[in-house]
Amino acid sequence: MSGPRVAVLDYGSGNLRSVVRAVERAGAEVTLTADPSVAEEATGLVVPGVGAFAACMEGLLGVGGERVVERRLIASRPVLGICVGMQVLFAEGIEHGVRSQGCGEWPGIVERLQAPIVPHMGWNTVEPGESSRMFAGIEDQRFYFVHSYGVRDWVMRSEPPFPQPAVTWTEYGPERFVSAVEHGPLWATQFHPEKSGDAGAALLRNWLDTL
Amino acid sequence: MSLAVRVIPCLDVDAGRVVKGVNFVDLRDAGDPVEMATVYDAEGADELTFLDITASSAARDTTYDVVSRTAEQVFIPLTVGGGVRTADDVDRLLRAGADKVGINTAAIGRPEVLSEITHRFGNQVLVLSVDARRSSEQPSGFEVTTHGGRQSVGLDAVAWVKEAVERGVGEVLLNSMDADGTKNGFDLEMIRAVRDVTQVPLVASGGAGRPEHFVEAVEAGADAVLAASVFHFGELTIGDVKNTLRAAGHDVR
Fold first, then answer.
1. A32 at the B interface (CB within 8 A)?
2. What fold is seen in the domain A5-208?
3. Cβ contacts (< 8 Å) between A14 and chain B: which residues?
4. ipTM value for the complex
5. Which residues form the active site (chain A) (predicted)?
């Protein structure tokens, strides 16, 4: 049996092999690629990312990744951003006082978490947005986070007939930040589904089911 | 509900095999790190740590193979420490499938390597591993050791952690060489002393014998608890530790 064809975008960031394996395990045929046309044509595209916002954005621009994401969304082709791969979808990131531009698919600023202990590292709970498909059947599970930055405000609304984005939140100490978004073909998680054991695998299957 | 306390088994790996007292009953091959990692994952481990104690650099290649085979099958975070000297070493381990890399002796000799690594890969990949013991010769009462706790390097353990955090490490693994192997509990004073100066996650290691010990370590300030032999010998399971933590009012996965 062959599953949906998924491309994982290779732009020099992070533990790509784990992402590839986890998406394969969830039932897809996965290609790791830096080729924009392959990334554009796949049924689903995963944009991973670890490290710094500015460095990731630079890497993404280096392979034309932001144009790939843009074109896919215009054609309603699913994209899943993970961790910094989610953060760069927002308008901008601020690191050490320096502002960097993101892809700007969503308004919002990625800022340093203000908690006694940062990075936010480990397994935390989620409060899925209404109408979430991403968390169907796994609403009560914990997912693995490792990040020092996040998005505190969600301001984007849709007009009918388009559905509202489903925004999922997570609390960490005094912070409450966006831990996942489902917005039409564009989905993203601040945590790492590929490192979240069976719960992560179920989430990836929920995504593959939309392809 | 909040962030869960992480319970982490540690496996000592030498030339691709798990060493140092392993006594799993239901394993076909007790010495295979990938197989053990799979069992711990199934038991609910929140992360895994491999400590590469391979002496020769030729045999070290097997470690990359072990890391990559583990990452193919186990979908929880994997930290690998031992023998890491440069940012290129880190790069190789990350490419093999490690999520975090532990550094110990090399950072003592050349602390700049910490920022070299974090500038390239981010803070979250780098774990400072500290083997410390009690000493009246250091202001904090704790000193850094090397060679399995046998050699002092004349460094205050609390001051060293503080410096390493300033240089960018994303997590601290604090191992008490006095408590290690005793099963009498973690060195709680050491955990408190390090917690006071550390704004990154703190993993406590050394001395675990009973489930209550893990609760004490968490209440002294540890974000995560690590143990080796009590898990390997089946004296405690990950589940035992989590049940006791939960009963004491701490969130676990």
1. no
2. Rossmann fold (3.40.50)
3. 94
4. 0.94
5. 83, 192, 194
